[in-house]
Amino acid sequence: MGGKLRGGIGLEYLSVFGMPLPQYVALAARLKCDFVSVNYRGAANSLVGPAEEPLKDSKSTRRQLATALADHGMRLELVEGFAIEAGTAVEDYDSDLDVVAQLGARSLCVVSLDKDRARTHAQFARLAELAAERRLIVTTEVGAGVLRTIQQAEASWLAVGHPNFKLLIDTMHYFRRGGMVNDLESLPPEAIGHVQICDVPMPAKIESYMDEALFERQCPGDGDLPLADFLRRIPTDTAIGIEAPIRSAYNELESSLLKCLMRTRQLVGPYLLDQGHSLR
Q1: How far apart are CA 151 and CA 177, in angstroms?
Q2: First and final CA of the chain: distance in angstroms?
Q3: What is the full DSSP assignment across the chain?
Q4: C-beta separation of 26 from 17 below 8 A
């Protein structure tokens, strides 16, 4: 049982450096976002001191998030923080999937760290079945885990062959791992489940890939990625999340994210407007 994502433009949690979830949802509402995404295991790049307990471990954190979403009329699109590893089974996530569904999410992202491709595909397929029972979509990120390139990711998508299993494309990882705009032309529209957008210089100017990914990406339009051409090849019902953590602009976080959102709205405006989507 598959389903289409609602589309729109929103915020990814990596962009706010571990901001408490209620404040994050309120920020997204002020910026007139269509959705937010969160990490089930907590912030990966917190700059705000001790982080709140992660959603996975804290009923209180989950209640606070649910209340904030309801208070601000905000949609929860994607929940990250799931992995497939050798020696584990996705059935272990059964209760976690219940939590994600109860929060009202549309999809989750799972990354495989298991080098056995056949087992990875079987686990993706099984997780897609479990998620479909809860009306959730399963995505996996191109350029993360064992799926380093778009070619490997497309091969895995075909091998899994489940309508509830899709690819998440993060523009930094996609282009830095050698992906090209034209590579998307062979990918069926139903294969793409979520996009995380940012910009980066090509080639890299920061030595540490992870430091750049977690702390110093760029606003769309400030780097070298062919984002306009890329977005022309993305289905218009795809959710597009701003994943642009910019530590150097942390003291002006809200205005920095507003700039990222305005740039993205300008890039996707002609396509979403044609389809009747709200740009707010």
Answers
A1: 10
A2: 31
A3: --------EEE-GGGGTT--HHHHHHHHHHTT-SEEEEETT--SS--SSSPPPPTTT-HHHHHHHHHHHHHHT-EEEEEEEEEE-TT--GGGGHHHHHHHHHTT-SEEEEEE--S-HHHHHHHHHHHHHHHHTTT-EEEEETTBTTB-SHHHHHHHHHHH--TTEEEEEEHHHHHHTT--GGGGGGS-GGGEEEEEE-B--SS-SSS-HHHHHHHB-B-TTSSS--HHHHHHTS-TTSEEEE---BGGGGGGHHHHHHHHHHHHHHHHHHHHHHTT----
A4: no
Residue 5, pLDDT score: 33
Query: Are 5 and 193 in contact, with CB atoms under 8 Å apart?
Result: yes
pLDDT exceeds cutoff 70 at 84: yes
Give the up-direction half-sphere exposure of residue 260: CA atoms within 13 A in the CB hemisphere: 32
Residues 228/191, Cβ–Cβ less than 8 Å: no
Summarize pLDDT for 46-76 with one digit per residue, the tens: 997 766 899 999 999 999 999 999 999 999 9
Question: What is the tens place of the pLDDT at every residue in 2-31?
Answer: 333 358 999 999 999 999 999 999 999 999
Question: What domains can you pick out in the chain, each with its CATH number?
Answer: 9-274 (3.20.20.150)
Task: Note the pLDDT tens digit of each residue in 251-273.
Answer: 999 999 999 999 999 998 655 44
Residue 64 in contact with residue 53, Cβ under 8 Å? Answer: no
What percent of the chain lies above the pLDDT cut of 70?
92
Residue type, 42: G
pTM value? 0.93
